Amino acid sequence: MDHSPATEPAPVLNFIEQIIEEHNLSGKYGGRVHTRFPPEPNGYLHIGHAKSICLNYGLAEKYHGKFNLRFDDTNPVTEDTEYVDAIREDVQWLGARWDDREFYASNYFDQLYAAAVQLIKNGKAYVDDSTAEQIAEMKGTPTKAGIDSPYRNRSIAENLSLFEQMKNGDFEEGTCTLRARIDMASPNMHLRDPIIYRIKKAHHHRTGDQWCIYPMYDFAHGISDSIEGITHSICTLEFEVHRPLYDWILAELGNYQPQQIEFARLNLNYTVMSKRYLKRLVTEGYVKGWDDPRMPTVCGLRRRGYTAEAIREFARRVGVAKRENVIDLSLLEFCVREHLNKTAPRVMAVLDPLLLTISNYPENHTEWLAAENNPESPESGTRQLPFSQTLYIERDDFMENPPKKYFRLYPGGMVRLKNAYIIRCDEVLKDASGKVIELRCSYIPESKSGEDTSGISVKGTIHWVSVAHALSAELRAYDRLFKDEDPMAKDNFLDSLNPDSLTVSKIWVEPSLSNTQAGDRFQFIRKGYYCTDQDSQPGQLVFNQTVGLKDSWAKETNKR
RNA sequence: UGACCGAUGGUGUAACGGUAGCACUGCAGAUUUUGGUUCUGCCUGUCCAGGUUCGAAUCCUGGUCGGUCAACCA
Q1: From 3.30.200.20, 2.40.240.10, 3.40.50.880, 3.40.50.1970, which CATH number describes the A349-463 domain?
Q2: Strand B at less than 7 A from CB of A265
Q3: What is the rounded CA–CA span in Å between residue A126 and residue A67?
Q4: Closest nt to A528 (CA→C1')?
Q5: pTM of the model
Q6: Fewer CB within 10 A of the terminal residue: chain A, N end or C end?
Q7: Torsion of Cα atoms, A368 then A370 then A371 then A373, to 10°
Q8: Does domain A23-263 correspond to CATH entry 3.40.50.620?
Q9: What is the pLDDT of residues A458-505, one digit of tens each?
Q10: Å from the A268 CA to the B38 C1'
């Protein structure tokens, strides 16, 4: 038998880490790791971007490398500083740090232009006067080779002069483009003389009206990576077929060459994950904005009460691979619960009140009871809770004809009021329609929480608030935005919208919440995790439901 | 009728020629002044067919299925 000391469990590396470690071993990048997150500022970041940020930043951190934030702003007609600001805030909030390395593809417009000129001089690029339709026509199809443009063999001098005229604004938009001269018969469509510069007489949010030609993604991206000394240029799977072009451009230019690596983007069931569709939800008013708590955007999740820690943990748990995947929403929820369970202070809130009067408790008397702030972290201390004769309890914590295993209140039954006394339900009062409107109970004076000498043990503990002391508040409860696991499988994803994704109600919360600030997170005991919304004000409190607690009783009742 | 990529429980992800493991979900139980947490146990998997090998999730061949590619978007 081998009794050698237990070996460390082999660290589990994802395939990108394996590539990096191979590079570190071979010395390909001199042991350097430098990643980047390259958003286009034309929309808000979503949880899929968060995965990418965590991946890129996490790799830089793990290998003691660097991480750049680079805005891929090569299309001035769709981009805006509003998005730049929002993206910067989200990346920062997620915990990624880019120090002074905040870059813009537009910073490189001069270098990009020079690179294009060099390509022309090398006979590797030409100005094409064909229309967009003609170019598409000559491009062929995935199964049919393309044909050469009639402008493909212009002289270098002519191309140089034409390209300069393009830059000078001598031509109208759409009249010509600069194309890389590669291979119109390539099985890879992206190598069939891709357009690398086009004319756009648009105002750019950073360079203003300085340029009227703008580089295309394929041309700008690799060169930007190269300029910044990126080692591992990580992107999603659909760019796999772009990699030969990425490599071709840098090789033709003789420039430093990062390694592009593609991984499978994150998909979540019951949600859509494309900027285009998220934008429609916002602009067409199906949600209240990019930060609507039902949105899978980073700002939406933040407003919903998700923590950056939870999102990072989620990104870690979903893993990195090349296989298409759909992650269960339950994993995301698990990650927030896990973090909030450890960190969120417990408070009592009654969401659907039922009046309860304690007949044998002195009228107009207030007793202050100590309540633990968080049993998961004793150092979080205790607070004082007002108790009195008249309380609200949760309506579904009472049943007139309880099923087996129901251990809340019922006529003649006993429960403990959390942090207070054990009570017995003596009488049920109803209105004319038969609806229960009040419970008359008696309490056991010796059963006070923490000093119970009654000897009575009860199965159930329920939460409550004192009517005279409770604060009313608005609750915004959320359900999934879409009814179907894959809304995109519908002809129109809007048909899948869940009409009940938002429920607003009036609730009662304990008075310690009077000064809560936007972003504060709580566990409403026995209910779920909630956070104070930015719309909240003293006297007009507003809470968002982040996620419910696991509810095994609900499962039990559903089985019936 | 092309090229490229991929395929391991319900969902993800490991195992790198040597006992298919982990997490989420689900189920059962213990503990509990939250039907929460925590703890324990259980269910469920290598796309198919050949081949190489003492031995294949892993290597080879051929299928099947899924994804991507024909924007002057990124």
Answers
A1: 2.40.240.10
A2: no
A3: 35
A4: B36
A5: 0.96
A6: N
A7: 120
A8: yes
A9: 999 999 999 999 999 999 999 999 999 999 999 999 999 999 999 999
A10: 29
